[in-house]
Recover the amino acids of this structure.
C-alpha cells in the first residue's frame, strides 16, 4: 500500500494521489461539489466589506487625480520580505496582506531595469534615489541592460520602427501563474521538502549549461518559499502546515500570490484557477456549521478586494501601450471536466457576485471558461453579470481542453492559456503585419521614417498593385520578420531568466515544466483586407517624389473580413497560418513550444499611429482594429456591415490550432439588439444564446460590452463626473475604467462598431 502523507487539516477530504504527490487537480476532482442551480442563494455585502470598500474608493479617487498613482516607494528594492505589514483597516479585514506597507503604494522594482524604475518615479513627480541608481547601474546588472547589451543593430532598428513592438524588454514579461493553491493544500514546509528533492535529482555528473541554470533556479525557488513563510509570519500567520479551514485556505493561497506581486511587476500577474479549490474548503466549513453563506461571501469579497488593489509603477510609454493601469490579475472560473461534467461550484457564482456587492471593476480580470454544456443556471447568471457590468470576458473551454489536454488550464493574461503548475509562458508581444504589408510594397523601407528596415528588395512598381507579385514579396517580408522576431525574444527571455527570474511563481510549479513561446500579430484585419483590396479592388498607388508608395485608393469594392464572407475570412487565416509556420521554423529559447496570438490590448492605438496608409483604405495614423476584430468603418469599403452574428462568425473561423496564445474579439452590443428594454430577462436569455452559438462554432474569446455609443459620448464630455467613476468597459483582453483611458483611446473605443442588431 502507498504510504500516504497525512495532516489533520485534511480530515473530511476524499483521499487520493494528491496525498502522495503535489497534485492539486486530483484533490479538486475528488472533493469538489458541482452546483447546477441558480443565483438565488447569494448574499449581500457584509458591513465589513462596505466599510473597506468605502475606504478604498476614497483612495482610488486620490489615485485617479494623481494620474494613477496614490504613493510610490523610491529607495526600497521590492522583494517578498522588503516591507513591513500593511493594512487598509486592520480590524475589518478578513484577508490581509499588501504589496508594500501602505495601500496602493507602488513598489520600487529596479531588477527589470533601473532606467524604467527611475522614469516611473520622475514622470510622477518623485525624486530619484542616487544610491539606488548607482547600485543598479554599477553593481547589479538588470534585465533591461542585459537585453540592450545583446541586441543587434537589426533588432534595435525593427524595434524603433515599430514593426516589432510592445516587447517585454522594458518591463517584466509576466504571464507566469504559480499554483498558489499548493500553499493552502500542503503548507510551505512540505513544498520546500519537495523542491529540495528535485534539486538533488537535477544533473548527473555532467554539468551542462542547462543543468547549471536549472540547479540555480531551483535553489532560488527554495529560498522564495522560505521568504513566503517569513512574510506570512510578519502578518501573524504560520503557513508552514496546510490550511485548516476556508478562511486559512483563502489567506494561505493569497500569501502565495502576494509573494509574486511583491517581487515581480510582470505585464500580467494572473492568480489562476482557484474557484473550485476554495469552494471545497468553504463547503466543508458550511457542512460543519463553522461558517454561514453570508460569511462565505464576505471572505470571497475580501479576497477580490485585495486583487482590486494590486498596483505597479509604470512608465508613460508603458501606459500608452496598455492604457488604464491594467494588472491582468486574471482569475479563471467555471469550465468543464475532461469527462464531460462541469466544474461549476457555488464559488463561481460568489466570485461573479462581487461585481454586484462592490460594483464593476477592471480587476481582477474575471474570465469565464465557457461552454454551452455548462449548467444553464450558471450560463444565465454569467450572461446577466456580463450585461450589467461589462467587466468579464469569456473563453472557449472546449478548445482549451482539446488543445491543452487538461481541465486545469487557466488564462495567463487576456487570452493566453497555460496549464496551472505544469506550464510556463515566455511572453513576446507582437509583430505588426499591417505594416509588413507596406514593407512588401516598398521593398523593406518604412513608410513613416523612410528607413531601410526590412531586407532590401525590389519595390513594387506600376500605378496599381499586382496580387501575385505582392504575395511573393509579402511572404519574403514575413519570413524575415519571423526570424528576427524570434531571435529578439530569445535575447529577452535569456536575460529575464538571468536578471529578473520569477522565483515565487516558479516555486509553486513543477520543476520539470513545459514552456511555451508566445508570439503575436497586430493588424490582422487590415492585413487581410489589404490583400483583398489588392486582389479585387484595383488599388491605385500614390507615390511621393522619391517613388515611395504613400497612399492607396481602392477603385472597386472588395470583400472584407468580419462580414462572414468566406474568401475574406480565408485570407485572414492564410496570413495567420503562414506566419505561424515561419515562427515554428525558428529555434526558440529553452526549446519552448511556439504559440501565437491575435491580440493588441489598447496598444492598437499606438501601433496605428506608427503605420501609414494601407491598401484597404485605412488612413495613416488611425488605430488598427484591436485583436482579431474586423476593421473599423474607415474609408469607402471597410467595416462590419452584416451585423453582430456575421462578425462573430468570421472570428470563429480563425484557426485556433495556429493561434494557441489566443484570439481576442471585443464586441459592443446596443441593449436594444438583445430585445425590449422593459424585458431584461429576454435580453439576458438572448445574450446567453449568442454566447452558446459563438462558442459552439469555434469562437475562442469574447469581451462583451452592452451599452450604446451615446452613453460613451456623454461620459467623454463629462469624464470627471463622480457617477462615472467606476464605469467599466471591456477592451482587447481586459477591462478598464473608461475615465482612466487616454482621450485618444477613449475616442478609439467610441469609434468601434456599436451593433444595433444581431
Amino acid at each position: 500500500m502507498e504510504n500516504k502523507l497525512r495532516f489533520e487539516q485534511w480530515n473530511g477530504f476524499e483521499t487520493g494521489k494528491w496525498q502522495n504527490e503535489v497534485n492539486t487537480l486530483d484533490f479538486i476532482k475528488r472533493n469538489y461539489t458541482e452546483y447546477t442551480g441558480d443565483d438565488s442563494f447569494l448574499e449581500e455585502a457584509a458591513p465589513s466589506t462596505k466599510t473597506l470598500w468605502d475606504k478604498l474608493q476614497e483612495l482610488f479617487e486620490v489615485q485617479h487625480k494623481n494620474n494613477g498613482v496614490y504613493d510610490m516607494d523610491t529607495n526600497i528594492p521590492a522583494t517578498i520580505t522588503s516591507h513591513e505589514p500593511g493594512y487598509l483597516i486592520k480590524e475589518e479585514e478578513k484577508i490581509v496582506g499588501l504589496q508594500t506597507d501602505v495601500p496602493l503604494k507602488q513598489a520600487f522594482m529596479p531588477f527589470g531595469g533601473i532606467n524604467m524604475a527611475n522614469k516611473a518615479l520622475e514622470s510622477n513627480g518623485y525624486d530619484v534615489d542616487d544610491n539606488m541608481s548607482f547600485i543598479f547601474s554599477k553593481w547589479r546588472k538588470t534585465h533591461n541592460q542585459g537585453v540592450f547589451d545583446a541586441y543587434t543593430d537589426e533588432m534595435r532598428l525593427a524595434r524603433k520602427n515599430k514593426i516589432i513592438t510592445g516587447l517585454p524588454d522594458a518591463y517584466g514579461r509576466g504571464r507566469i501563474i504559480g499554483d498558489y493553491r499548493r500553499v493552502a493544500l500542503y503548507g510551505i514546509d512540505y513544498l520546500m521538502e519537495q523542491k529540495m528533492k528535485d534539486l538533488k535529482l537535477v544533473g548527473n555528473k555532467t554539468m551542462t549549461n542547462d543543468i547549471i541554470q536549472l540547479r540555480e533556479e531551483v535553489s532560488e525557488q527554495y529560498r522564495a518559499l522560505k521568504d513566503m513563510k517569513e512574510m506570512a509570519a510578519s502578518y501573524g500567520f504560520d503557513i508552514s502546515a496546510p490550511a485548516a479551514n476556508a478562511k486559512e485556505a483563502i489567506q494561505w493561497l493569497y500569501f502565495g500570490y502576494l509573494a509574486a506581486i511583491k517581487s515581480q511587476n510582470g505585464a500580467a500577474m494572473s492568480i489562476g484557477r482557484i474557484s473550485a479549490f476554495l469552494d471545497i474548503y468553504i463547503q466543508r466549513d458550511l457542512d460543519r456549521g463553522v461558517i454561514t453563506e453570508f460569511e462565505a461571501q464576505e471572505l470571497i469579497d475580501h479576497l477580490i478586494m485585495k486583487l482590486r488593489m494590486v498596483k505597479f509603477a509604470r512608465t508613460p510609454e508603458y501606459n500608452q501601450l496598455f492604457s488604464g493601469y491594467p494588472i491582468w490579475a486574471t482569475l479563471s472560473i467555471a469550465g468543464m471536466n475532461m469527462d464531460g461534467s462541469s466544474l461549476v461550484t457555488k464559488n463561481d457564482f460568489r466570485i461573479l457576485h462581487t461585481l454586484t456587492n462592490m460594483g464593476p471593476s477592471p480587476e481582477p480580470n474575471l474570465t469565464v471558461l465557457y461552454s454551452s454544456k455548462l449548467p444553464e443556471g450558471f450560463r444565465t447568471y454569467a450572461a446577466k453579470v456580463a450585461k450589467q457590468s461589462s467587466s468579464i470576458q469569456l473563453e472557449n473551454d472546449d478548445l482549451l481542453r482539446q488543445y491543452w489536454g487538461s481541465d486545469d488550464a487557466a488564462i495567463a493574461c487576456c487570452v493566453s492559456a497555460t496549464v496551472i503548475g505544469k506550464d510556463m509562458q515566455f511572453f513576446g508581444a507582437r509583430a505588426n503585419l499591417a505594416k509588413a504589408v507596406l514593407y512588401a510594397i516598398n521593398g523593406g523601407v518604412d513608410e513613416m521614417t523612410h528607413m531601410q528596415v526590412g531586407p532590401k528588395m525590389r519595390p513594387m512598381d506600376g500605378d496599381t498593385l499586382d496580387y501575385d507579385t505582392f504575395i511573393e514579396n509579402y511572404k519574403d517580408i514575413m519570413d524575415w520578420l519571423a526570424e528576427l522576431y524570434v531571435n529578439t525574444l530569445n535575447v529577452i527571455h535569456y536575460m529575464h531568466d538571468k536578471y529578473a527570474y520569477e522565483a515565487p511563481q516558479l516555486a509553486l510549479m513543477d520543476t520539470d515544466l513545459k514552456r511555451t513561446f508566445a508570439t503575436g500579430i497586430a493588424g490582422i484585419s487590415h492585413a487581410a483586407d489589404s490583400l483583398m483590396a489588392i486582389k479585387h479592388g484595383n488599388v491605385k498607388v500614390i507615390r511621393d517624389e522619391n517613388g515611395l508608395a504613400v497612399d492607396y485608393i481602392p477603385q472597386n469594392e472588395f470583400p472584407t473580413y468580419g462580414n462572414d464572407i468566406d474568401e475574406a475570412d480565408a485570407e485572414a487565416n492564410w496570413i495567420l497560418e503562414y506566419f505561424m509556420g515561419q515562427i515554428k521554423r525558428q529555434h526558440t529559447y529553452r526549446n519552448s513550444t511556439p504559440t501565437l496570438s491575435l491580440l493588441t490590448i489598447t496598444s492598437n492605438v499606438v501601433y496605428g499611429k506608427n503605420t501609414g496608409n494601407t491598401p484597404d483604405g485605412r488612413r495613416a495614423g488611425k488605430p488598427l482594429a484591436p485583436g482579431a476584430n474586423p476593421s473599423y468603418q474607415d474609408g469607402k469599403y471597410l467595416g462590419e456591415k452584416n451585423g453582430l452574428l456575421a462578425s462573430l462568425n468570421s472570428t470563429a473561423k480563425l484557426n485556433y490550432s495556429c493561434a494557441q496564445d489566443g484570439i481576442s474579439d471585443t464586441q459592443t452590443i446596443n441593449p436594444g439588439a438583445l430585445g425590449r428594454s422593459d424585458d431584461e430577462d429576454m435580453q439576458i436569455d438572448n445574450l446567453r444564446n449568442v454566447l452558446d452559438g459563438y462558442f459552439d462554432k469555434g469562437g475562442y474569446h469574447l469581451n462583451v460590452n452592452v451599452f450604446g455609443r451615446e452613453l460613451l459620448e456623454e461620459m467623454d464630455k463629462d469624464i470627471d463626473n463622480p457617477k462615472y467613476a467606476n464605469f467599466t468597459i471591456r477592451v482587447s483582453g481586459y477591462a478598464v475604467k473608461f475615465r482612466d483611458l487616454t482621450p485618444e483611446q477613449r475616442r478609439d473605443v467610441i469609434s468601434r462598431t456599436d451593433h444595433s442588431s444581431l
Observations:
- The CA atoms of residues 6 and 19 lie 7 Å apart.
